[in-house]
Structure formats: C-alpha cells, structure tokens
C-alpha cells in the first residue's frame, strides 16, 4: 500500500487520482480495513520522522513539540528516569545481548518492570518481519440465527432462560445496516475478545500464535503502569478496547476500536490519547488503520470544542518497537467533517488548517538501552497529563 501524503502538494496529487466512484460510494469500512482513498477524502496528512539517538551524548533527543513536551517537563522526566526507581530496569537492559537474552533473575531484579521485561523477551523470541495487509487478528462472526442455535445447543439444562431486552442502541440509529457489524465480512466483533468457545472464536491470518498481539498489548500496559506510579497516578491507563464511531453527514459511518486509552490524571472522562498494538513490524496498512482511529477519536473529542487548535497523541507498539504519533487539527477541519465536503468532487481550499496532521516518531527499539531511556522520558511526560 502507498504511503500517506505528508504535504498538501502530495495530497493534492493523490486526491486528483481518486476515481469518480470513490466520491459517489465512499463507504467507509471498519477501522481495521480503512482504505487509502478514505484517508485522502478525510484530508489527512501523515509524516514520519525517524528517530536517531546519539549514543555518545548524555542527553537524549526529544520530539520537537514544545506544547506536548514542555521544557520544564522534559527536565523533570530526565531527572526521574535517571533516578533510583528506573535504575534496575535500565541496568539490566543495558547489558542485554541477543545471544544470551534475559533470565528470570533479571525479571526479578527489574522490580515492578519485571512483567514488562519478561513479555518483551517473549516478543523478541517470536519476532515477525511485518504485519499482514489486513488486520493481524480477526474475530469472524456467523449470522445471528446460526450463532443463536449454537448457543442454545450449549445451554445449561438446569438454567432458567431469561428474556433479553429487545431495545436497540439508539446512538447507532439507522447506521447499523451500513456498518454491517454482525456479518461474516466484519473484521472485528463489537463484543469483547472471545473466550475460545462458540462461533466468534475463529481466527484468521495468523502466522504465529494468535495470542502474540495480546502479548504485545500486555507488554505495553505493563510498561506504562509502573511509569505512572511515581507520578502519584493510578487508573489512568485503561486497556479497554474502546470503540469510536464516526458518523459523516448523517449517512456514512464506521467504527474504529483502539487497544487502550490514557485519561487525564485528574479528569477521568478526559481521554488524552490512545494505544494501538500489532504483533508484527510497522507497515503502511497499520498507519492507515491508525488514521481511521485518530479521525474518529479527534472528531469525538472536539465536536463540542470551539478551540482553535486541538492536540492528541497515539502510542503504538509494533512487536518490540514503539512509535509516538502526535495529531493536531484546527476548527475548520472539524467543521469540514460535519459538512462532508470531502465526499464531493472538487478540490478544497489548500490551507493547512483544513487538514488533520499526524506526525509519527520512531522506531524506538525497547530492547536497546538508549532507545528505552528516551521512551521512558517521553512516556513520563505524556502520562503526567500536560
């Protein structure tokens, strides 16, 4: 898949090559099967900045964004990461060798980061080169009638049946049919991940054990949680697979489900950013999926906010590598989402404020000492809720 445009000029070229049918039938699919053309129609610019860390320098390179990473918070993070709390983890990672690996003693000695380190070691052993073109793991559901028959056949004969409510979710309205949430073509179920029983437990496109993506998810969560504790924070890192539903012009909709959210330390309903994990290395298909998530997230976050500039971020872990993506948008882009002008043929006004900007930084290799130091510092600031 082609890389997303990082400038207005490149976006203009991509926009000009979209076929007429894409304007007339811009049916957005689920977040995990989001199309390149859909990202163009929604006016997204995506840039990639490769991180280079000078090992000979005592100071790590910070992402150049003074609003997300203020100088004062940078200093606090640098002092904290070089303190006693993080010292055992960094000491163990510094001596890491692929030939030797880590031992159970290393996991114990790394203290509250032991679970993170043990899961990272497991990821290193099961490393894959790249993701599949589509979502790495799909929950494929059978039609409702067939699934009901299956559940009935497994019902406990001693259990008294309870009639379920027939009320439907009003917020989905007439979009349920378009979103096709309960057909075999759906890439991920609206239910929780399956337990291994029943028809929803069928997995597809797994090169290695399907649990690997969950291992990456747990690894990231067990890295974030101990970082938040010295900040006096508890409960703002939530691994729930929250869904953001994007409705465009009252008729087009898609659902994008993330792998976790991070809320403000003092405002539990204020979501600062979200998490995304993949068991393989990063590809453009992964970036397209993250665009779908960010568009739905920013629209949901900012639809009632008249502020001129809105910012958010995404922490993505692909195998043993971590990426930080900063997103920003202005009110004109939010207003554009409400009108759906992007689905009409004709070039829009080419101004920066008419686009969603996503800037990706990485990769940070978590098994490398200098990379991990930089990751800890950046995450320390993000979790503090600037």
What does this structure look like?
- The chain contains 13 helices and 9 strands.
- The two termini are 35 Å apart.
- Helix 7 runs antiparallel to helix 10.
- It has 386 residues and is an alpha+beta fold.
- The relative contact order is 0.18.
- It has helices at 8-16, 20-24, 36-41, 71-81, 87-94, 104-109, 114-125, 144-153, 176-179, 212-228, 284-302, 331-339, 369-383, and strands spanning 44-50, 237-238, 243-248, 252-257, 260-263, 271-278, 309-318, 321-330, 356-365.
- It has one domain (1-138, 203-386).
- The strands form 2 sheets. The chain has a 7-stranded mixed beta sheet with strand order 1-9-8-7-6-5-2, sandwiched between helices.
Any chance you could write out the topology, listing elements then pairs?
Layout: H1 8-16, H2 20-24, H3 36-41, E1 44-50, H4 71-81, H5 87-94, H6 104-109, H7 114-125, H8 144-153, H9 176-179, H10 212-228, E2 237-238, E3 243-248, E4 252-257, E5 260-263, E6 271-278, H11 284-302, E7 309-318, E8 321-330, H12 331-339, E9 356-365, H13 369-383
Parallel strand pairs: 1-9, 6-7
Antiparallel strand pairs: 2-5, 3-4, 5-6, 7-8, 8-9
Helix pairs in contact: 4-13, 5-13, 7-10
């Amino acid at each position: 898949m082609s890389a997303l445009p990082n400038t207005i000029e490149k976006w203009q070229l991509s926009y000009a090559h979209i076929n007429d049918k894409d304007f007339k039938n811009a049916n957005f699919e689920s977040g995990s099967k989001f199309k390149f053309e859909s990202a163009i129609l929604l006016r997204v610019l995506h840039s990639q900045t490769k991180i280079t860390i000078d090992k000979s320098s005592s100071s790590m390179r910070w992402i150049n964004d003074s609003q997300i990473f203020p100088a004062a918070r940078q200093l606090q993070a640098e002092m904290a990461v070089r303190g006693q709390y993080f010292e055992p983890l960094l000491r163990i990672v510094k001596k890491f060798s692929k030939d030797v690996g880590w031992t159970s003693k290393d996991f114990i000695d790394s203290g509250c980061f032991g679970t993170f380190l043990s899961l990272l070691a497991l990821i290193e052993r099961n490393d894959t080169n790249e993701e599949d073109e589509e979502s790495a793991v799909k929950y494929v559901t059978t039609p409702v009638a067939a699934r009901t028959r299956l559940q009935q056949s497994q019902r406990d004969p001693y259990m008294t049946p309870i009639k379920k409510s027939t009320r439907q979710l009003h917020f989905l309205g007439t979009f349920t049919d378009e979103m096709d949430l309960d057909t075999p073509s759906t890439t991920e179920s609206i239910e929780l991940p399956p337990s291994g029983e029943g028809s929803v437990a069928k997995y597809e496109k797994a090169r290695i054990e399907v649990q690997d993506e969950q291992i990456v998810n747990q690894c990231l969560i067990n890295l974030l949680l101990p970082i938040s504790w010295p900040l006096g924070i508890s409960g703002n890192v939530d691994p729930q697979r929250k869904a953001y539903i994007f409705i465009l012009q009252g008729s087009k909709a898609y659902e994008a489900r993330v792998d976790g959210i991070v809320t403000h330390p003092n405002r539990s309903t204020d979501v600062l950013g979200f998490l995304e994990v993949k068991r393989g290395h990063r590809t453009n298909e992964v970036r397209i999926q993250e665009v779908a998530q960010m568009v739905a997230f920013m629209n949901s976050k900012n639809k009632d906010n008249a502020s001129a500039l809105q910012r958010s971020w995404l922490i993505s872990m692909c195998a043993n590598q971590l990426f930080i993506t900063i997103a920003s948008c202005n009110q004109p882009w939010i207003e554009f989402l409400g009108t759906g002008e992007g689905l009409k043929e004709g070039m829009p006004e080419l101004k920066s404020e008419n686009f969603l900007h996503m800037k990706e930084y990485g990769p940070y290799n978590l098994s490398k000492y200098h990379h991990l130091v930089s990751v800890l510092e950046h995450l320390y600031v993000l979790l503090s809720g600037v």
